[in-house]
Specification:
Layout lengths: L1 H8 L9 H11 L5 H6 L1 H19 L8 H17 L11 H11 L9 H4 L4 H19 L1
Helix pairs in contact: 4-5, 6-8
């Protein structure tokens, strides 16, 4: 799991932390997951979900079949942005550098099981990871 998440979090994530560092961050994040706090987020989640419903209604008007994955991904990112960053990413209606960087980072992840060595050991991968981390960190730094 550490190898998988490292290109996204640079090893600084609650999932792979251990010991004192994990305990410290767990204590910091715990209040954010209390039932009382989650109830205060309901209106933000409903607002983003309402936007999602409008977008689906717009796309349904022409009667054509469309894939929903991109729409649900955007909804998820907007809810996460609102809940965890306290900001509107607006990825349901426009491109967003944080969302684009994260998506590209995930596309370039390797699971270590690729048979093709050119895919598994792509020399460009570290550069792409560096670039995306830089993009995401710059965006988050401006928001904080």
């Amino acid at each position: 799991m550490k190898q998988f998440l490292k290109p996204i979090s640079e090893g600084l994530d609650i999932v792979t932390m251990e010991g004192v560092l994990w305990k410290t961050w767990r204590g910091i994040f715990n209040p954010g997951f209390s039932a009382g706090h989650l109830m205060t987020l309901t209106s933000s989640i409903i607002e983003e979900t309402h936007r999602f419903c409008k977008i689906l209604q717009e796309h349904s008007l022409d009667g054509a079949v469309f894939k929903m994955k991109a729409f649900t991904d955007n909804l998820t990112m907007d809810v996460i942005g609102k809940v965890f960053l306290g900001t509107k990413l607006n990825s349901q209606r426009a491109r967003n550098p944080l969302v684009d960087g994260l998506r590209m980072q995930v596309r370039w992840l390797t699971f270590g099981a690729e048979v093709n060595p050119f895919t598994r050991y792509n020399p460009i991968r570290p550069l792409v990871h560096w670039y995306n981390i830089r993009r995401m960190n710059n965006y988050v730094s401006k928001e904080i």
